[in-house]
Design a protein that fits this description.
This protein has 605 residues and is an alpha+beta fold. It has 23 helices and 18 strands.
């Protein structure tokens, strides 16, 4: 079929189509003429076409609550507009021709069918950034990208074999061999829910506990069950097993047990070395061995990123592995008999589970009020030094457990939190913001809830919240008057201009509403649930964070390849055209959110 003049199908997003999709597009596309001043797409309505601009200039604008048109962006030849209006049935912006324009018109029905038939192109639009710019037409990468949307129910599940808790070890071993499974679900009259016994559990019962073959397996069962739903993404199962250091999870479909899923079945779908990293970490007996096991982390993240893994999944997996690393170093530094008296907290991006590449140490310690341990300071110095050796550099602000300021007894924590109530700026406000993202990862987690309760009680102080939320407006959104991305000599600092306003604004709103979650996405969902955020803003904010994280990660890997230290800067000039449009769109979401925070907390710029 002859190509359509002016429509280059080798450029994104059309390079993500298969041959059949390209042929369908060429057959159905039409030419449109738009006189100067005419509206191509109107906000609030659907669009009969997706529009690819061939010649001319189109302005996108939105009308504010006073009826004034606010310029959003300019689009020229090669730009695609109207995709969201076709997919969602409602345009967010209006588009007006500046002078006469020519375009290619893709019928809405054709476009929807192209998305249905081409998962990579659907991911491009549905995920915001997802695989755009990373996927070629090669089959290897196409298959890798599609693995990121495989559901647990599509995997090769093992049958769920059920036995009574009175079953003997000998009979249970025979059942495992007969059914060719690795675990049994154990139902016991004395327990409200089933437990699980694995082949390893039976082996340890015989060899280490020296139990007789006729001993019942009920007491050996592990509870509660680690479960995952059939509708969850398979990659999530990998995260769960990595974080919990287990080899198998129970798969549920509603209230029904559908089967079990083991690490072997998961790894059959993924060319990932994360499980090998976790195994090596579990076996490590020194900081050097931990560092060697963790050395593959950056390579793992690079591989997942190149294959189109979604940012939230990558961050959860990295968080799980970081947690394993920190717990192993903690166990080397803190004697077993002292661990009940201390609780290790991670804070900042690690506390929110929003870390990708290793960054500064942000941690603290909650001590039991009656702890008497002369060797505490030395152990914490050993722990911090161990993290640095593995690749987590010391925090410039000294937010670390080897700093006495960040290791306190429970009562001292509550006293410090009471002081933060009366400090409306400076280091105190910074310390409070960091602490609000804290979560326990090692030691005695029961020491943390009273500290968490004291932090959440600050949400009732509107004066404190007003001052704390003011930091959301501290850094201006890097957009020019005409909606273009503003960039300095080093590029755009996407942490200051994009990530921080969203993260901190959500943190403050969550504190006001008593939301205990630490992750930005979880906070956002809870704020929509309680009516603080609109569903539209609740959908767009996590998407904007995904865009910023993806682009920053790409820039950081580029810096590493060029021998430079990775930072938070993105050079818009090095982005592909559609990536620049996506970044601009995400920054406008930040702008809208800042306006919401300003109104909610009665702030001034």
């Amino acid at each position: 079929m002859d190509p359509v003049p002016g429509l280059d199908l080798s450029l994104p997003p059309f390079d993500l189509l298969d041959d059949a999709g390209r042929q369908r597009l060429q057959a159905d596309v039409d030419i449109g003429f738009h006189p100067g001043g005419s509206t191509l797409i109107e906000a609030g309505r659907d669009s009969p076409h997706v529009v690819v601009i061939l010649k001319g200039l189109v302005h996108a604008f939105q009308v504010d609550d006073r009826g004034r048109a606010e310029r959003f962006a300019d689009y020229g030849p090669g730009d695609v507009i109207g995709a969201w209006a076709v997919m969602a049935g409602r345009a967010r912006l209006s588009y007006r021709a500046e002078g006469d324009c020519l375009s290619h018109l893709i019928p809405a029905a054709t476009f929807r069918q192209l998305l249905a038939d081409n998962p990579r192109m659907a991911a491009y639009f549905n995920e915001g950034l997802a695989t755009k710019g990373r996927l070629s037409s090669g089959s290897e990468r196409r298959e890798a990208a599609e693995l990121m949307v495989i559901r647990v129910g599509e995997a090769d599940l093992a049958p769920a074999e059920r036995v009574d808790g009175a079953t003997s070890i000998a009979d249970a071993s025979a059942r495992l061999r007969e059914r060719r499974v690795d675990c049994l679900l154990v139902y016991d009259r004395e327990q409200d829910a089933p437990g699980i016994v694995t082949r390893t559990d039976l082996l340890e019962a015989l060899t280490h506990k020296r139990l007789p073959l006729d001993a019942p397996i009920g007491p050996l069962a592990s509870r509660p069950l680690a479960t995952i739903g059939t509708g969850e993404v398979l990659f999530q199962a990998l995260i769960e097993m990595t974080e919990r250091q287990i080899e198998r999870v129970v798969v549920t479909e509603g209230s029904r047990v559908a089967g079990t899923l083991g690490m072997a079945e998961v790894l059959a779908h993924f060319a990932s070395h994360s499980h090998l990293i976790s195994l090596r970490l579990a076996r490590a007996q020194s900081v050097d061995e931990i560092a060697e096991a963790a050395s593959g982390m950056t390579r793992l993240v690079r591989s997942l990123n190149l294959h189109g893994a979604r940012i939230p999944y990558m961050m959860e997996l990295v968080s799980a592995l970081n947690g394993l690393i920190m717990r192993r170093i903690f166990e080397l530094a803190v004697p077993a008999e002292r661990r009940d008296g201390v609780c290790l907290l991670v804070m900042g991006s690690e506390g929110r589970r929003e870390q990708l590449l290793k960054t500064d140490q942000d941690n603290a310690l909650v001590l039991a009020d009656d702890l008497d341990w002369p060797g505490l300071a030395e152990a914490m110095e050993q722990f911090s030094a161990g993290l640095a050796k593995v690749g987590y550099p010391p925090c410039p602000g000294r937010v670390m457990v080897d700093n006495p300021h960040w290791r306190m007894r429970g009562g001292e924590w509550r006293e410090r939190i009471g002081q933060w109530r009366h400090v409306h700026g400076g280091q105190g406000a910074l310390d409070l913001s960091i602490a609000l993202d804290a979560r326990p990862i090692a030691g005695n987690a029961a020491l943390f809830p009273p500290v968490k309760d004291a932090l959440m009680a600050l949400g009732r102080d509107e004066i404190l919240l007003h001052h704390l939320a003011g930091a959301t407006l501290e850094f201006a959104t890097p957009l020019t008057f005409f909606g273009r991305v503003r960039s300095g000599g080093a590029g755009t600092d996407i942490k200051k201009g994009g990530i921080f306003p969203v993260v901190h604004g959500l943190r403050c709103l969550a504190l006001r509403h008593g939301i205990t979650a630490t992750g930005s996405r979880e906070r956002c969902a809870a704020l929509v649930e309680c009516g603080e955020l609109s569903p539209g803003l609740g959908r767009d904010l996590p998407q904007a964070l995904n865009v910023f994280q993806h682009m920053r990660l790409d820039a950081q890997f580029a810096a590493l390849a060029e021998g430079r230290a990775p930072d938070n800067h993105i050079d818009p000039a090095r982005l592909r055209r559609l990536d620049r449009e996506l970044m601009r769109d995400a920054l406008h979401v930040v702008k809208d959110f800042r306006a919401h925070v300003r109104s909610s907390f009665h702030l001034r710029d």
